[in-house]
User: What shape does this take?
Amino acid sequence: MAVREIRRGPVPASGPDPVWWSGGSDPERPLVLVVGGALGGGPECTRLLGRLVAYGHAVVAARLPRPVPCAECTAASVTRLIDRHDRTADTRRTHVIGFDLGGRPALAAAATDDRIASVHLVGAPVSRLFEEPDRILDLPPATVDALADATGAAGGEQLPYLLKGLALLPEQLYEIRGRVWVGHAPDDPLTTPQDLALLKLTLESSVFHAFGPTGGTSPRGGPVHRWLVDGVRRAGAPPTG
Assistant: This one.
């Protein structure tokens, strides 16, 4: 089944807004929310969206807000997107995919929103990058430029101020009841070994998948899309009755 409908829309400064909607308006289709980041989750995800629709899901893809708002706002924005599609998809068991910076609001929302049945992360920073924001300037220049563009920063020098304070705390991660699927690469500058250790210690249910070296960026492309589709399918269907 091909993507039946794709809409593109403006992104307001107040929060993320759907930029793709696929799967029509069928309230029986389980919802998949894709939160794009700086290095992934953009227009190259069209094929991923089509695969998810072909397996019976309704899909919403959203960009990060610009500039990055407060920590509480990022989680609330994900919940609002789920609320918005309560009548056009089955949101009772929503699956959220978060690419790099988009993984932060996905995890934060899962800690408070029981409708989120699973979270699927690709190269997502969790704590260390936000706790030590000066590390951002030591990242590869292409990554710094992508982060600045995604967050609306005037330049790399503004990034430490925009991202400071977004670290997820252990007590937040302990609250996540749905399964979290974590895709990472050994040379991904955003997902540190310390973040992976934190997730392993705090998450109630998790699956970790190591992709091969990526050349200093977050994992992307066909292998990542196939892993995401498989994870969403394995995460389970919405309850019936």
Observations:
- The radius of gyration is 16 Å.
- Strands lie at 18-22, 30-35, 58-62, 90-99, 116-122, 179-184, 206-210.
